[in-house]
Amino acid sequence: MMKKWLGGAMLLLMLLVLWPGRAWGVELPVQAEAALLMEKETGQVLYAKNEHQAMEPASVTKVMTLLLVMEAIDSGALSYDDVVTGSAHAAGMGGSQIWLKENEQMTVRDLLKAVCIVSGNDAAVALAEHLAGSEDAFVERMNARAQELGMNDTHFVNCTGLPAERHLTSAYDIALMSRELILRHPDIRQFTTVWMDSLRGGESMLVNTNKLIRFYDGATGLKTGSTGSAGYCLSATAEKNGMELIAVVLKGKTSDERFSDAKSLLNYGFSTWSLVTVTPDEVLPPVPVTLGVRGTVQPVLTSENTLLVEKTLANGLTKEVALAESVAAPVYAGDTLGQLTVRDAAGNTVAELPILAGEDVGHVTFVQMLGRCLARGFCMGPQS
Question: pTM to 2 decimals?
Fold first, then answer.
């Protein structure tokens, strides 16, 4: 029986297909101090510049604030229609705001609008306090979630991104939390794709701080940020032809520069790369099982069968299936039964995907073996 090499195959897949743009020698006209381009489905980094340099993110911080709020909504702990009462602390926030008053009540939906469209600091704090009891308690959750996501360059001090000592992250970490938000909680688009809206029955107009929403085809979000010390920052997301990209820009010199950098990153990604879903050319045949309660097990291709490949290679891919001749019981769903090798037109291996057992097949018991023997007449003595 073939060994379980799933972990090794996944590692090889990452090395062959999912390694960053720097390995491809990409040079782009990016002026910001740090930048990164990531594809959403695979998490592949397509371009990176100073991606692990710890820097101030300004209001791009709010991506994590939004992530925790959306996780609470999707888990049922919070509702869009829940009413939040503004505290004195929330009302006292400076910077971008919706002029929330102490004891003013707004729904979670309206506060999310305020955060996503105009980067309202007061709205962000109101949501944080409502969810965790205090901003400090919410920030603890932010840092804990950051660690879970592998954001090793990050330490949050507040939920807004207002300047604070040791409030730092990196372009790579911003891409990680942005990916988690848009991949797991696509409903956030109902807020991040809005160019103009209003609050308080039309009395307070909202215009999106992210100009790409209006001026870049396919833009889906996500969050702008700027302070004197952080410069101009952005986590931009856009989708074309079923592929969504995340472009992170930190410490641009001007607002126009950050948007220009983001467009350069996105244009490169969409013009050069495409997503390909790989499936076998024919139905996979059952694999015989020795001493199993059933005689065969049905193989299935891993669900992680979406590859990000250069467009120049996408149309010439070939696939080769290799399956074990047989396996011994017991077999467990997820056991490796073979692999599907993907090659480009030149015969170079692009990826190796595991083929797995789609079901459990238990080991036959002595009683079952005896029954089989009797049924076939193998265990019967001479007849008189």
Answer: 0.86
